[in-house]
Design brief:
Blueprint lengths: L5 H25 L14 H25 L11 H15 L1 H10 L3 H35 L17
Helix pairs in contact: 1-2, 2-3, 2-4, 3-5
């Protein structure tokens, strides 16, 4: 299994935080709030800003780090189509929240909201299916190789009785 060194963790963390630090102000430059869009009450902003702006920016930063450094985690040469699709899917699952949240923030009208959600939710569902197929393929391959006995017991983080 791939073990991360301290230097690798720091590299991933620095890219994640750096990209997020740039993404937060870019949220307001790239997606300017149009006039007439409903604004949240001031009392809810301390709760809304983290989930609508900061956390999606951090996820976006982790997605960028994953795209930069995740490719080397594929051990087969050349990687299978499912491995490549999984890399793209994980990258999308991490990066999509930043534009998704920002489009929600500036959308006006139900038609725009429906279009945003159809695009982002459908692609997230597809990406999740790809990751699930990859996971099942890896587990089956490990079971055939005798690395994993029954499937889930050896993958659990805590022992089960």
């Amino acid at each position: 299994m791939n073990e991360f060194t301290r230097a690798e963790w720091l590299r991933w963390a620095s890219v994640t935080v750096s990209v997020a630090a740039v993404a937060v102000p870019l949220s307001f430059l790239l997606w300017r709030t149009p006039p007439g869009v409903a604004t949240p009450p001031a009392g809810i902003l301390p709760y809304l800003i983290p989930i609508a702006i900061v956390i999606p920016a951090l996820s976006f930063g982790l997605g960028v780090a994953f795209m930069l450094f995740g490719r080397k985690l594929i051990s087969t040469n050349p990687p299978s189509a499912l491995s490549r699709a999984s890399l793209v899917s994980v990258a999308w699952l991490l990066t999509n929240w930043w534009p998704h949240s920002n489009f929600h923030r500036v959308s006006s009208g139900w038609a725009n909201l429906v279009a945003i959600d159809y695009f982002f939710h459908t692609t997230v569902i597809i990406a999740t299916c790809v990751v699930a197929a990859f996971f099942l393929t890896v587990i089956r391959e490990r079971q055939r190789a005798g690395e994993v006995e029954g499937g889930t017991r050896e993958l659990a983080s805590t022992p089960t009785t």
